[in-house]
Amino acid sequence: MPKRSQPSSEQKAKIRVTKFDAADYLKTPTAIAAYLTEAFETNDHAYICNALDTAARAKGMGDISKATGLSRESLYKTFKATAKPEFETVRKVMNSLGVKLVAEPINDRQKVA
Fold first, then answer.
1. In order along the chain (113 residues), what is the average pLDDT of each group of 10 residues?
2. How far apart (Å, rounded) are the C-alpha atoms in residues 9 and 70?
3. pTM above 0.90, yes or no
4. Alpha carbon distance 101, 7 (integer Å)
5. CA 26 – CA 52 distance, rounded (Å)
6. Own/partner pairs for 87-96, CB < 8 Å, 24+ apart?
């Protein structure tokens, strides 16, 4: 078996990795709507809360706070994975994000939970 050569100084260069944050990519109501739609389709409460938090951070918690009349602290607590936000709060936040909830029939291929 051939011996491996030692990496050169060029190969030893460090690669800088940053943490991915979806909020960095949610710049428009269209992108936010697509992101939240995917989250709602999971039917996972914690995931949906996280997605709402991410979308709110993308828009700016200060802006969301002003638009909804809720404090920033309240908003952060509202979308923790263990929280159970009230529907009115979710509706206000979604409205401030420029998106709305839409009901559509469940596809025959999907099971009703």
1. 63 83 95 96 94 96 96 92 92 96 78 57
2. 54
3. no
4. 54
5. 11
6. 90/52, 92/67, 92/68, 93/52, 93/56, 93/64, 93/68, 94/36, 94/52, 95/67, 96/59, 96/63, 96/64, 96/67, 96/68
